[in-house]
C-alpha cells in the first residue's frame, strides 16, 4: 500500500478544519453536530476521526491556529524598522487573517468574526478550551508587548509606558473591531485605520 504523503495529510486536516469552521460560524457550536461537519467536508466518519476526536478538539484546534497566526503577524511586525504604528498594525492584523482564512458563509459574510464569537462563548463553559485560549492570549500579549517595546526603542513611546497595559488595550481594540464585524457587518479597513489614528491623537489638540 502506497504511503500517504505529509502534504496530503496536511491538506485533509485543513479541509476538515475549514469545513468545521463554516459549520460553527453558521449555526453555533452546540447546534452543530459531527454529522453536520461530515456532510460539510464530504468525508467519512473514519476519515475525520482519524484527525479529531470530536467537536471540542476541532474548535480548540481552530482557536489555537487563529491565535498563532495573530502572534506570528505581530512578531514579524516588531522586527520592522520603524515599527508600524497601531493605525497600520490593527487593520493589517485583521487583513492577514482574512487573507489566510478567507472563507465566507452563503451570504458572503466573512466567517472569522462570527466564529470568534462562538469560541468566546464556548470558552465560558469549556475549561479545556479556556486553557487553550489563555495560553494563546498570553503569547499574543507577549507579542503585543514586543511591539510596544519596539515603539519605545524607536522613540515613539515614553520610557515609563506600561507595555503590558498597552498590549492588553491593543488586543481589546482588535477584538472590539472583530466583534462589531460579527454583530453589525463588515468594516472597511480605512475605518479601522482612521479610528485607531484618531485615538492616537487625543490630547494633541490642546
TrEMBL record:
* Keyword annotations: DNA-binding, Repressor, Transcription, Transcription regulation
Q: Which residues bind DNA?
A: 33-52
- Would I find Transcription among this entry's keywords? yes
Q: Where is the HTH tetR-type domain?
A: 10-70
Among Pfam families, the record links this protein to: TetR_C_6, TetR_N
Write down the SUPFAM superfamilies for this protein, in alphabetical order: Homeodomain-like (SSF46689), Tetracyclin repressor-like, C-terminal domain (SSF48498)
Q: Does the keyword DNA-binding apply?
A: yes
Q: Would you say which domain of life the source belongs to?
A: Bacteria
InterPro entries per UniProt: BetI_C, DNA-bd_HTH_TetR-type_CS, Homeodomain-like_sf, HTH-type_TetR-like_transc_reg, HTH_TetR, Tet_transcr_reg_TetR-rel_C_sf
Q: What is this protein called?
A: TetR/AcrR family transcriptional regulator
